[in-house]
Amino acid sequence: MRHLLRRLGFYLVALWASITLNFIIPRLIPGDPAGALMARFQGRLTPQAIHALELQFGITHDPLWIQYFQYLGDLLHGDLGTSFTYFPTPVATVLAQELPWTLALVGTSVLISFVLGSLLGVLIAWRRGSFLDNVLPPFLTFFSAIPYFWLALIALYVLAYTLNWFPLHGGYDTSLTVALTPDFLLSALQHALLPGFTIVLASIAGWMLGMRNAMITTLTEDYVLLAEAKGLNERRVMFSYAARNAILPNVTGFALSLGFVVAGSLLTEVVFSYPGVGFALLQAAQNSDYPLLQGIFLLIALAVLGANFLADLVYLVLDPRVRAS
Amino acid sequence: MAMLPQSPEPVAAPTGQPQEAGAGSTAAAEGATPAALAAERPWMTLWRIFTLNRKAMVGMCIVGFFFLVAIVGPFFIHTDPSALSNDVLMPPSPKHWLGTTQTGQDIFSQLVVGTRVSILWGMATGLVVTAISVLVGLCAGYLGGIVDEVLSLLINVFLVLPSFPLAVLLAAYVPFKGPLTVAAVIALTSWAYQARVLRAQTLSLRRRDFVEAARSSGESTWRIIFFEIFPNEIAIVAAGFVGTAIYVILAAAGLEFLGLGDVTVVDWGTMFYWAQNNDALLLGAWWWFAAPGLCIALLGAGLALINFGIDEIANPRLRSEARPSKRLLRQMLARSIGAGAGTGAASLGASRSLG
Questions:
Q1: B145 vs A: CB within 8 A
Q2: CA A315, CA A310: separation in Å to the nearest integer?
Q3: Domain chopping of chain B, boundaries
Q4: pTM, rounded to two decimals
Q5: Which architecture does CATH list for B44-76+98-328?
Q6: pLDDT in tens, B299-320
Q7: Please, are residues B234 and B42 in contact by the beta-carbon 8 Å criterion?
Q8: How many CB pairs under 8 A join A and B?
Q9: Per-residue pLDDT averaged across A278-300, rounded?
Q10: Are residues B348 and A260, on separate chains, in Cβ contact within 8 Å?
């Protein structure tokens, strides 16, 4: 329990650090972006109108520490400011629109990759030196070693552009309205297949090799030998004895990667022009939409910290040794 | 998890073991005399690693080739890589080896000139990141007490902060775009992992006899840290540098791909940016993004191979061997022949993941 409280305290510090970074970065860097935005309107608007805009964007001339507490207060109320690009939509609304896409696409892909990768890892470690063990690792590592966005571009070019098997961009057929109808869901699935496939292809080697290496260490343990000597059937030894003890690092890795589900999709969404948090981040970066940029960073930081805490909890549940210490 | 360059994760992890253990097992497994190897200095061990392991050797060749291109390549390019011409969107041909862009720029000369920029900045950034992590990690580990508390907290906070999105945020705010900005942003966001590894290693070294001896003979703290402890960690630092370099090159290309670099500078990342921005894909101009992508992929693979090699040497269990319990006999036979147990059906597989 003390251990857990310490970790919780640490995550609170980290959360505070990311919020403060988010507050400080725009104010530290020369060439204040809000001022630049205002300068665009200078001379074209009356001072009253500029003042109104300043209020809208939350630009004040108060001392820094007052601004800081105002910022914290706004955050507590879920107020992340107003997006420049989608003016006058609040950042929180933009994020709420984009998040489901990312969660659905990347969440599902990461889950598939984890389950499939771990299973393959168990299998090739068990049949060490077999044909599969010699072929799968280099083959899949190749795909995870090449830069992800390049892999995605090639897949898009070959499978979608040349062969016409998949749609070229977007998250759904734009002639359909966004609603929970069979037509729309089918179209969304069709658009998600290729991006999802590239994510799985790029990340599966990590799970597989992690599992394989952990299995190889576990397989040398005495209790595995004993289980074999007792004449237990192969599947039981493989899964209940060896894999069960070897999977711990992979489960922790999975909990951690859930945090990156929110962020990790960045390049996927950019390449496939897929709606989502990553695509919004790109647009925010290119349009100097600072409130949106900060909101996205905060969302990602929150997700990653939450996932880290989850990983700690999982470790505590799965590994009695951690509980004892 | 490999979809996005997140942080310089453990591409190779000879991290847990002390250096001596790694070198010792190398010697035993590769058939060299352990005594001879142990007597050598750390950098000699490092050299051994590169020449004895086939993967490391191949990796060295690839990386060496790119360095060669980066150094001498641009001298052979006599045309301005940004010069426009009337040969618009030409596929690869004898005149334009790698084709041309939408504005008629020759991709081959862009690639060669860009190699220098990308490699130079990639390696420089990797060095800076490594320097920061060495400084923070060794100080935290050796000095202990309140310094360690503060530095550890800093390390851990930077470790959990999502580094690539933070880099995007920083790069978007900085008003002057360019390779220096990209490098600074990456250096600032990616030093934490190595620092933690080095801190742990330093903790295990600080109570060793030779450090105690140096302390009691009155050597200054800085001398102990950088002349007594640091040389003992050179192998870990080198492996960390290789891993960091992979991350840095990917992250820099990623940032530039998003348009956060100086788009007028010619390098691999900005080539991607222009290809993507001009819808090279929809025009069917595969050669436009194939060339820089292949370069990044090859260089990344080369660096990864070097790290796989180091990893295998540090942890002999990871080599592609048969399970001892099942095929003990065959293995013993192989050992006695001395047929270089290990690198046999050398696969990339016996390694950690990239993400």
A1: no
A2: 9
A3: 44-76+98-328
A4: 0.72
A5: Orthogonal Bundle (1.10)
A6: 888 888 887 777 776 666 665 5
A7: yes
A8: 204
A9: 82
A10: no
Select from A305, A301, A297 the least CA-distant residue to A256.
Answer: A305
**Torsion sign across C-alpha atoms A186, A192, A198, A204:** negative
Express each pLDDT in A223-258 by its tens digit: 888 988 988 888 888 888 888 888 888 888 888 788
Of A279, A264, A122, A244, which is closest to residue A203 (Cα–Cα)? Answer: A264
CB A195 within 8 A of CB A274: yes
CA separation for the pair A254, A113 (Å, rounded): 10
Q: Are the beta carbons of B260 and B171 closer than 8 angstroms?
A: yes
Strand partners for A82: A90
Task: Let me know if B55 is exposed, middle or buried by CB neighbors in 10 A (0-12, 13-18, 19+).
Answer: buried
Q: A203 vs B6: CB contact, 8 Å cut-off?
A: no
* pLDDT of res. A117: 92
Interface of B with A in 295-354 (CB under 8 A): 296-297, 300-301, 304, 317-318, 320-327, 345, 347-354
User: Which one, of B168, B170, B188, B278, lies nearest residue A279 by Cα?
Assistant: B168
Cis peptide before A88 (omega within 30 of 0): yes
- On the question of pLDDT at B58 being above 50, the answer is yes
Quick check: helix, strand or coil at residue B130? Answer: helix
Residue at token pair 């402890």? B229
Q: Which residue among B258, B290, B294 sits closest to A282, beta carbon to beta carbon?
A: B258
User: Maximum CA pair distance of chain B?
Assistant: 74
